[in-house]
Design a protein that fits this description.
With 301 residues, the protein is of the alpha/beta class. The chain is 60% helix and 10% strand.
Length: 301
Amino acid sequence: MPLRFFLIEDDAVVRKMLEKIITENQLGEVVGEAEDGLNVTADQLYSVDVVLIDLLMPGRDGIQTMKKLREEGFKGQFVMISQVENKEMIGQAYLHGVDTYIQKPINRYEVVAVLRRVAEHISISHSLDSIRQLLKALDQTATTASPLHQKEQTQLEHQVQHLLLLGIAGEAGAADLLLIMRHLAEKEKLGQTIHELPSLKELYTELVRQTHHHHESTIQKEVRAMEQRIRRMVLQAFTHLSSLGLTDYTNPTFEHFAPRLFDFEEVRKRMKELEAGEKTTKCRINVRKFLTAFYMELKKA
């Protein structure tokens, strides 16, 4: 999800430069700006992920503004922008909520590098929150009310690690994926060898009937919703791995997972699409292969 930025900077030229850098490098969207912190409130920032804020401004400086916004309940990230080199002042800024620092005069490459690190940090935080929700949901759908055994906890940890590596921990379909993995593991405990999955519709229908107590007339609606969530999640994993390979062909996550979870020729096509700046894809994705291979990977963990 693209980040939403708010700029608090008294220099209009700097605000314009920052907005241009953010837009041209597809870092997100600038949703608002102010020339000082006097009239900025947390209510204005309810949908903002990152505030870029100047340390020295007339009226109310950056430290005072950050303190006020935190007290009002703003939970997003602060990135300080200033030419101040006073270590004590910079230290005070960090104490009052700055997450990182950009030095003036503005350097495009520094801004891009810093904001990408911030985006990665936010993504990881969101993923961890999603993982906590996933684990809570799985506990609630467990067939027994007793706590999970240590072995089951370890298995869940392996699954979560794989979700993080594939960039899908925050996807809605991740909860469905973990339910499928548990379902397949239970089948193997009953003596059924898992070499390949049944038809996806059959698998989804079985899971929906186990985890939802809906009237039969609504079962197919739930199955279609699960199918869409899983397909979007698999597409995200496909694009994530392709992006890793485009950046670094020797990336260990790319080298290990790309040829196992997907048709590698399709991965190469997606890499070319990404290189050309294409957001959508014409590549073919085999969801059934992904689910089977993902399960086999977990078994080896």
